[in-house]
């Protein structure tokens, strides 16, 4: 039901408006591109791409921001607010927050050196959000096995190829010590000097240094490239869920090799998979609403 020309009459300037805010946010801090990309993922995996993640808690529901995968982790809400207020100035009441996340994700990837694609549009915003849904495991934890990752992606219409391509998003951005502690101290499929370097900033004791950050891609944390896949081949994946994609004999090993050697294949598969992910259960027609403020229902 979505289409690339959804706003061509009602808000043709939406693309310029989003892009300019994303550009200045990334100019200020490269990591923000990663953070914006992740927001679209965490929105789409919980009850579809409906902007639910953006809602603050209200008296009638507790939202998703404090859910396990999100708490002290997802960021970029102020940038989304800035985009929304720019877009509202240009075309009041027309563009959904869910669509803004999809466009901002695309722009972020492109600005950091990755592919671009035509974003499918026409999503509407949810009037509510669910802490329980966000905590239910639909967003897989970094401790997941490969088969758990596949199941979670399959549940939203994404296959194994999409899983590997989309995991390539970890070519940018950062993770907290608490997300990779178990891997760097306990696992064997990890490069020894890499583990040592990470351990120096992430103490083994649970609760100490939990929020210390490390780049997901040890080589080029601010560039959207294929270094992530080269890291996996060198056993330098930061998360358990990263390294599991290249595990000597695993079903995804050959895809990792393909992407590590071909930016064109990776870029094209990543773009396709992003469009598929963005197609998950959108609200359309008269369902949902166009929120005026992304943080609360109208
Ligand atoms: C395959 C399953 C996935 C798992 C288990 C996973 C897990 C994680 C974890 C644990 C972090 C670090 C969070 C923290 O420590 O605060 C992270 C960061 C990130 N993830 Fe994923 N992720 C997955 C897939 C994806 C997908 C599909 C995307 C986007 C298309 C994505 C984009 C990102 C980005 C860009 C960051 C860095 C964010 C920042 O620096 O603000 N991830 N992910
Ligand atoms: Ca959602
Ligand atoms: Ca990179």
Short description, anyone?
This protein has helices spanning 14-28, 31-44, 77-90, 97-111, 131-134, 146-154, 160-167, 177-186, 192-199, 227-233, 240-243, 253-261, 263-277, and strands spanning 174-176, 213-215. The longest helix has 15 residues, at 14-28. It is built from 13 helices and two strands.
What would you say this structure looks like, in words?
With 298 residues, this protein is mostly helical. The chain has two domains: 14-139, Peroxidase, domain 1; 146-273, Peroxidase, domain 2, CATH 1.10.420.10. It is 44% helix and 2% strand. The chain has 13 helices and two strands; from the N terminus they run H-H-H-H-H-H-H-E-H-H-E-H-H-H-H. It has a two-stranded antiparallel sheet with strand order 1-2. Helix 1 crosses helix 4 (97-111), helix 2 (31-44) crosses helix 4 (97-111) and helix 8 (177-186) crosses helix 9. The longest helix is centred in the N-terminal third of the chain and has 15 residues, at 14-28. It is globular, with a radius of gyration of 19 Å. Bound molecules: protoporphyrin IX containing FE (HEM) and calcium ion (2 copies). The site of protoporphyrin IX containing FE has 25 residues, from helix 2, helix 7 and strand 1.
SSE-based structural type: mainly alpha
Shape type: globular
The main pleated sheet reads as:
2 strands, antiparallel
List the bound ligands.
protoporphyrin IX containing FE, calcium ion
* Tally of distinct domains: 2
**Count the helices. How many?**
13
CATH architecture label name of the largest domain: Orthogonal Bundle
CATH fold naming of the largest domain = Peroxidase, domain 2
Percent in helix: 40-55%
Overall average pLDDT: 98
First-to-last CA distance: 24 Å
Task: Output the helix-strand order.
Answer: HHHHHHHEHHEHHHH
Strand percent estimate = under 5%
Radius of gyration, in Å, reads 19 Å
Going across the major beta sheet, what is the strand order? 1-2
Number of beta-strand segments: 2
| Unreliable sequence segments | none
**CATH homologous group name of the largest domain:** Peroxidase, domain 2
Which CATH class of the largest domain is shown?
A: Mainly Alpha
